[in-house]
Recover the amino acids of this structure.
């Protein structure tokens, strides 16, 4: 299967894409994001606000529900914790990242139409399962990306959204 070991993964070149989780409360969603970030060899996951992080947990270990979903990716994918998502966005922008909120908003760009520059670093912000990305965070970003939807529902589970966007953007950055 030509899978990398955890050590090889840590040393391997990463796709210059960071996933920022803005108050994502479900351990299963967080675990799925880690697992998908590992699958596409993304740079990091930033955990913000109420999103679980090891410092939250007694013994500094990841909760078992997250581990069951992440299947160990929480030990391979780099992560940082920020008490406020605005701090994470500011930090990324100061480091030269272009940051997009994944949100249905006025002026959102269809995911298929997003143009990425080779050699540039990017981040995507995914929001709370019910409330989405905080407006104060959306206001700070460089724009919004939207996944077109054609059914009666106008939202997707955050981990499904993350998977779709991570795949599409990582493919664009690899090509």
């Amino acid at each position: 299967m030509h899978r990398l070991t955890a050590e090889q993964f840590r040393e391997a070149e990463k796709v210059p894409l960071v996933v920022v989780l803005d108050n994502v409360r479900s351990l299963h969603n967080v675990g799925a994001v880690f697992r998908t970030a590992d699958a596409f060899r993304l740079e990091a996951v930033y955990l913000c606000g109420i999103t679980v992080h090891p410092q939250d947990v007694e013994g500094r270990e990841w909760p078992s529900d997250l581990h069951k979903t992440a299947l160990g990716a929480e030990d391979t994918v780099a992560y940082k914790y920020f008490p406020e998502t605005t701090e994470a966005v500011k930090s990324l922008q100061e480091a030269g990242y272009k940051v997009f909120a994944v949100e249905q908003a006025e002026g959102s760009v269809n995911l298929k139409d997003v143009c990425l520059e080779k050699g540039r670093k990017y981040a995507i912000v995914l929001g709370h399962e019910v409330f989405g990305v905080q407006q104060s965070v959306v206001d700070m970003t460089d724009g919004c990306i939207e996944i077109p939807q054609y059914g009666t529902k106008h939202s997707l589970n955050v981990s499904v959204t993350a998977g779709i966007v991570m795949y599409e953007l990582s493919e664009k950055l690899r090509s």
The two ends are 22 Å apart (CA to CA). The longest helix spans residues 158-174.
